[in-house]
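Late entry, evening session. Most of the bench is empty. Finally got around to the prediction I had been postponing all week. Sequence below, unchanged from the version circulated by S.P.
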Amino acid sequence: MSSTLSDSSIYEANPYEGHPNLSELEAEVLWQYAKLSQNIKDLIAETRRVSEAPDEKMLKQLRALEVKMGLVLTLFKASVWAVINEQPMADTPSAYADTTADDTIQH
């Protein structure tokens, strides 16, 4: 790829087309690589821009989402607690009795 080409011109015309040492397929493959390379350069520039300064709009949206998720978690916990409290008590009181400290000998 020629360094005299502007960044956007790589998408418009194949700079390798008509090169005497390249077949048509080779020129097309090199052009695709050049476009891929430019896409990666654009991606790197954009990620650097985003990482240098936080996006205030996105931060506000994330804060609102965090508040909503906290509310959802609270409602979920309350629902689980309500379901547990609605369960009927066990018929036998010894079903959940703590027998670890019981030293009584039983016959």
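Two things to note before I forget:
Confidence is low (pLDDT under 50) at residues 1-5.
The two ends are 94 Å apart (CA to CA).
Will write this up properly tomorrow.
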